[in-house]
Amino acid sequence: MKSPVVKRSIVVAGHKTSVSLEEAFWNGMKEISGLRNMTLSELVGEIDNNRQQGNLSSAIRLFVLDYFRSRATPAVPADVRPQQVDTRQQA
């Protein structure tokens, strides 16, 4: 069975390193870097410089998750949400 994690080499701040991520996260990174008009290496460098703790792969996953979560729209429009029902019995 093929592992869903893909290991790639990337240059970050002039140093070559390896990062292991699932393909979906690599695709997310490519999309974000394209929207920001920067290279994948530049984006990874930015993430690396801003991470507080943990390893680089985890920092990238959290960055991608946060990026897309912050841009997500509510799944259920307000006019479709269940209404609060008055359960008191009427006399």
From TrEMBL:
All residue ranges annotated as the Ribbon-helix-helix domain in the record: 6-68
Keyword Secreted: no
Gene Ontology molecular function: any one: transferase activity
Entries under InterPro entries matching the protein: RHH_dom, RHH_sf
Record key words, sorted: DNA-binding, Transferase
Biological source species: Bradyrhizobium elkanii
Record's protein name: Aryl-sulfate sulfotransferase
Signal peptide (residue range): none
